[in-house]
Design brief:
Bound molecules: copper (II) ion
Strand order of the largest sheet: 3-2-1-5-8
Distance between the termini: 68 Å
Helix content: 40-55%
Number of strands: 10
Strand content: 15-25%
CATH superfamily of one domain: Cupredoxins -  blue copper proteins
Shape: elongated
Radius of gyration: 31 Å
CATH architecture of one domain: Sandwich
Largest sheet: 5 strands, mixed
CATH class of one domain: Mainly Beta
Structural class: alpha+beta
């Protein structure tokens, strides 16, 4: 066994010495360049069409309704394209090696070590890729979490087990006043009416445990904390009118899954009328009707607990039943 392995090694050395390495390296570099060009062409091809739509957003939700959501979406699509380009390049190299250097006999292949260009490439290229991804992530993230001094609309989001209250405020922070309010109940889904084209600030507070305010179309959610923490985020505008379901995205108890609300995005004129009607003392449903909007939520409905005295009465439950 030992003798055979040393034979192989010595023949490999002879094999390596008998061939000129220069020509092969030249051809290899040509192929590398070809693959690189192929990758670049693929990138141009992919960016030329609507890649996100073609590939269903690469798993990322589509249909964002804020500039922030579009930026996050674009970052994701660009990252996927970059990852695919690198992936195709690496897969190409792997298959090329598999075919080019497949076993042809018992001779060991050329043993390549200390190849500086190669080692430089696989050290520097990943660092560059990660740096670029990090840079664009930081830029987009900074934009998404940015807040301004004077947003057009400020809404206080109050979460509690298991519903929501939305307070329209006359300013920012704890000291501002609530000018109108929408409260969800077990029978009525709260409808949060907001305008297009205006910057909106959400100030979050919980009455009990941690909840999370989430409208999927904002492509953003932020936890709602109890106590002194007032989580804040802003969107620079809502771009598309419509009704969007909102959810609690933090497991907060038995009926967490049914802690829904609706975001109703309307024109600024309708929003002003809605707020005026609320300030005048109208109910949310009447105020919605007054601006020609459906009075109740369209995207979700109250959860029917199906509890009544016949099926939920712990005091009179038979001892040991079900055990
Ligand atoms: Cu919750």
């Amino acid at each position: 066994m030992v003798a055979r392995s040393s034979e192989v090694r010595s023949s490999a050395v002879r094999h390596s010495a008998s061939r000129g390495a220069g020509g092969r390296r030249g051809r290899g570099a040509g192929r590398l360049a070809g693959l690189g060009l192929g990758g670049a062409a693929l990138l141009v091809l992919l960016t030329g069409c609507d890649v996100g739509k073609t590939f269903a957003g690469f798993g990322w939700p589509q249909g964002g309704i804020t500039p922030e959501s579009h930026r996050m979406y674009d970052l994701w699509i660009a990252s996927c394209i970059a990852a695919l380009a690198v992936g195709f390049f690496v897969w190409g190299l792997i298959f090329w090696c598999v075919i080019r250097y497949r076993k042809r006999g018992n001779e060991l292949p050329v043993q390549t070590r200390y190849n500086m260009p190669m080692e430089f490439l696989y050290t520097i290229a990943p660092i560059l890729i990660v740096s670029v991804l990090f840079y664009y992530t930081a830029v987009v993230q900074t934009n998404v979490v940015a807040t301004t001094k004077n947003p057009d609309v400020t809404v206080e989001v109050v979460a509690f087990k298991w519903n929501w209250q939305f307070n329209y405020r006359d300013g920012q922070g704890r000291d501002a006043n609530t000018v109108a309010s929408v409260l969800g109940t077990s029978d009525v889904i709260p409808v949060l009416v907001l305008p297009t084209g205006r910057s909106i600030r959400f100030e979050e507070q919980s009455r009990d445990v941690i909840h999370s305010f989430w409208v999927p179309e904002l492509l953003f959610k932020r936890d709602v904390f109890p106590g002194n923490i007032r989580n804040v985020f802003e969107v620079s505008e809502l771009q598309t009118e419509g009704a969007y379901v909102g959810r609690c995205a933090e497991l907060c108890g038995s009926y967490h899954a049914f802690m829904n609300f609706e975001l109703r995005v309307v024109s600024p004129q309708k929003y002003d009328q809605f707020l005026a009607a609320k300030k005048a003392g109208k109910s949310t449903q009447d105020a919605l009707k007054a601006i020609g909007e459906p009075a109740y939520a369209e995207t979700t409905q109250p959860f029917n607990t199906r509890r009544n005295s016949a099926n939920f009465n712990p005091d009179s439950a038979t001892a040991g039943a079900g055990s």
